[in-house]
Amino acid sequence: MKPLDAAGRLHLLLLRALTGILGVFLIFTPMSGLWMISQMRRYSVFQDFGGYVRHWSSIGSLLAFLLCCLGMFTALFWLCLVCRRLRIVKRLVVWSMIWIPVLNYGLAFYVWALARQEIDHSLYKIRLDDVRAERQICRTKYPLILVHGVGFRDYRYFNYWGRIPRELARNGAQVYYGHQEAWGTVEDNAEILKEEILGICKETGAEKVNIIAHSKGGLDSRYLISGLHMAPYVASLTTINTPHRGSALVEFLMKLPEGVYRFICCRIDCCFRKFGDKKPDTYTASRQLSCGYAVKFNQKYPDDNRVYYQSYASLMKRGFSSKLLCIPYWILKAIDGPNDGLVTEESARWTNFRGTLKNKYLRGISHGDMIDLTREDYRDFHVTEFYIALVKELGELGF
To answer: Which CATH topology does 138-396 take?
Structure first.
């Protein structure tokens, strides 16, 4: 068993133990409370307190209730730390209201229910992984190369793609990364991708690669295929939340005074040089996400019929679905329409559009959710399962 798998199973063991303990106290706390109240009424605690304290059953019921409350609070505190379905804000809310009678019991039951959901999902995932690991359902004819979007790099200790590469590799996929720059232009990043792909083909002996690109990475990849004539080396291109028709949000930002816009871009360039970018050009790279640039780009670099294309989009349902993208979501919704926090559904539509990912709950699926940015699953959407199904289908299509 791999170390990460062992850590995951240890977490599950701790989660199950704390959930079981809290469940016991959720039963015994109200029972001890009712026993304590019955003893208080029986011995008229408010009229004859001395008589009340002389009976061992009265003292026993009081101590039992206090111990159950203490046990429930302790288990609740630690379960809040362990349960991954609770975010920081929810944890703080629970801890701040833990001393409010009756309400604290309701909060404890809520956390217990969330923990039970996480346990059920984890057990199902373990069983599913054990079966799929033997079948190697993500084994494809050609290696995968994951191409990130703007503002990020492929770091070793902070993976842009979260848990996705590990799950794909566990199920048989050969996974590589684009390693293009965070704020490189489409042209410069495509050159980097070209070298990476040629290196991958040489290393593996494969004739081609399958590209899965997120956000601006889709534009880098399209230029790679049509602008640098790399179609013979690319079997398929899957774009996810890519602004193929540009972003009205960029058009909005371009209305800033030219001096201010250039100053901000210059500061970003300076910052990302320290993070490894050799030729950051935020000014040009950001404008390549505009609607005006997209029209010219699409005319000049059409799809190559030797490559299999497909595209996906996702939608947030409300601003508070993502703390990171709430402001751009509201702006883009006001000036354009429904979006994932950065890209509209219409802009993400491209050749062989496979659909828009969303769930039936209030949260929706944000731009960051599609790359497992927060490393957590949401009700009705599991990002790693989406990518496993995607790669499995590529394999079935002969790619």
So the answer is: Rossmann fold (3.40.50)
